[in-house]
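Worked example 2:
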Amino acid sequence: MKQYDISIIKGDGIGPEIVDEAIKVLDAVSYECNFTLNYKEYLMGGIAYDVTGNPLPQETITGVLNSDACLFGAIGGAKWDQLPRELRPESGLLRFRTEMGVFANLRPAVIYDELVNASTLKAEVIEGVDLMVVRELIGGIYFGEPRANDGQKAYNTMVYTKDEIVRIAKVAFDLAMKRDKRVCSVDKANVLEVSQLWRDTVEEIAVDYPEVELSHMYVDNAAMQLVRNPKQFDVILTGNIFGDILSDTASMVVGSIGLLPSASTGEKTAIYEPIHGSAPDIAGQGIANPIATMESAAMMLRYSLGEDKAADLIEKSIKKALKDGYRTKDLAAYDAKHVVTTAEMGEIVANYIHKL
C-alpha cells in the first residue's frame, strides 16, 4: 500500500473547519483507492504568532519541505492587523511561499452545471466555462525592492527577471498542451517596462510550443473580458498582482469564491489551498463552504501524488452532492433542497465517495 506524508496547516478563522472536512474526504478516498495518508499539523499565520511569536515558525518550513505535499486552509484576521508588518499573518504567508519556492499558482475556474444560477452573469455567458489562471507567485511587486512608506510618500517596485518569466511561462504552456491548447498572456506592456519583458519572453517560449495558440491581452481588458465572455479563455498566464485580481474575478464568474481551489507548485514542494480568505466573521458558526478546500485536496492527489482516480472520485462526489441539492449557507438561494453545515457537507461528500 502506498503511503504519503501530508503536512497540514489549518491557519486562522474558518481554516480549521474547512481543512477538517477536506481531511474527512481524503480519508474516505484513500480507503477506497487503497493508499495511506499520514498527516502532520503545523502552525502558520495568526495562531502561529499567538503560540510562538512568529507567523512562520522554522518547524513549519522544515516540516512542509519534508512532506510530499501541503494542504493549507487560510490565515489572517483583524486581530493581528495592528502588529508590525513583518509579524502579521500575511507576511508569514509571503515568506512561506518564498521558502517553499512555489512560483506557480494554478487557479482553475470551472462552472458547476448545478450552480449556473449562482453567478450574477447570464447562464448563456457562463455555461461551459473551464479556464485556468496561471499566476506567478513569488516575484513581481509584492516582493520587489526597494519599498518604503514614510507617511508622506510610499513606493513599491515591480521586478521580474527573464528566468522567472521563462519558468512560469513553461508551466502555462505545458498545462495548455493538456487542455485546449490556448494561452492568453496578460500584462500591461503599453505602460510598464517589466510587462514588455514579460511579453517578449512569453513569445520566445511560445516558439517551443507550436501547437499552442498564444494571444496577449492588457490586464484591464482581461478583467472586462472575463465578465463579458469568460468562455474565450483556456489558460490565462500572468504575473503576481494581476493574477491575484483576475483569479478573484474568475471566482465570481462561477458564482462563489467558496468553490475555487488552487495549487502553488515549484521545484521543492506544492501547497494546496482554497483561494478565499480566513473569513473570521463566520468562523465557528458551521456555515463556511468547504468545497474549495475539498477541490484543493483533489488537486493535491492529482498533481503531487499522481492519484488521478482518487482525485476524480472526489470531484464526482462533490458534483453528486450539488446535483442532489445539498448547499452550504452561501449557496442556499440556488436550487437548494437541503441547507447543510460545513461538517455535514464533508460527511455527505465522504459518503458519496464510498458509494460511487
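The CA atoms of residues 15 and 73 lie 4 Å apart. The longest helix spans residues 15-33.
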